[in-house]
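F.,

This is the one I mentioned.
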């Protein structure tokens, strides 16, 4: 078995599972998502019947047609992503006339000096989590009224889950004055499992339940399906969308190997 070049980690392979569900109470699914290497993202539209659906789908469409995010490309930068989100923001305003907006959270696979990273981004209260070396953590930070209250010490994280203002976001694309995303650059480790979801999951299922599912369900598609079922079983009061991405060191016998991707769209 040949080793990696000095100073570089082994090449990584990525497998993905993903799905979305309208939920039990909503008439329209206002979530949209993309799960195509190198970009994995969830958008949760806001703005009432159909308007939110337009906003989220336009946002994901803009991401999907960026040349720097084309299949297998690992060269995107934070500046590239910022420009793409600015384009998405303007596109939503053009087609929805400021009547709608969307959250957006996810990660782009990038490489620096041959080393892979998750370039995580977030606007609003959809979320990106990471399970790495047994530690499960939320990478993104919600842009929401209740998160600001938690940060200020007015309420606890548990109280935020049932607070009447829990669905009020303070940043979104396509509406309002604050559309700037937050960004994080996180090294990809062998065995990483990334979870991207709309608040239809995080509002119904605890972090402990997510952690337990991601730890015990090996196949990423089965893990995504299990989390969606759990959200529905807990009430399904909102649209729910889940992406699970697994990273693993590639076998080193073949130095030229494409990274396979699995999963399906519902």
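My design for it:
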């Amino acid at each position: 078995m040949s080793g990696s070049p000095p100073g570089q980690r082994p090449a990584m392979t990525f497998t993905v599972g993903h799905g979305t569900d309208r939920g039990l109470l909503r008439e329209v699914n206002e979530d949209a998502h993309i799960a195509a290497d190198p970009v994995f993202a969830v958008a949760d539209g806001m703005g009432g019947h159909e308007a939110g659906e337009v906003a989220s789908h336009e946002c994901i469409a803009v991401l999907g047609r960026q040349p720097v995010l084309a299949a297998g490309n690992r060269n995107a930068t934070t500046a590239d992503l910022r420009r793409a989100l600015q384009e998405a923001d303007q596109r939503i305003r053009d087609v929805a006339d400021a009547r709608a907006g969307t959250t957006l959270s996810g990660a782009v696979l990038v490489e620096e000096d041959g080393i892979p990273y998750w370039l995580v981004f977030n606007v609003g209260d959809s979320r990106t989590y990471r399970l790495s070396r047994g530690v499960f953590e939320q990478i993104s930070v919600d842009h929401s009224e209740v998160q600001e209250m938690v940060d200020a010490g007015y309420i606890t994280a548990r109280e935020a889950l049932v607070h009447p203002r829990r669905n009020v976001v303070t940043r979104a694309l396509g509406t309002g004055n604050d559309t700037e995303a937050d960004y994080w650059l996180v090294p990809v480790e062998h065995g990483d499992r990334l979870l991207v979801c709309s608040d239809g999951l995080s509002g119904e299922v605890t972090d402990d339940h997510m952690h337990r599912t991601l730890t015990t369900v090996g196949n990423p598609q089965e893990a995504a399906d299990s989390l969606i079922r759990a959200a529905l079983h807990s009430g399904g009061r909102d649209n729910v969308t889940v992406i699970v991405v697994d990273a693993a060191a590639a076998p080193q016998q073949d130095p030229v190997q494409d990274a396979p991707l699995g999963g399906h769209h519902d």
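The helical segments are 51-64, 78-96, 145-151, 157-160, 199-202, 207-216, 220-233.

Talk soon.
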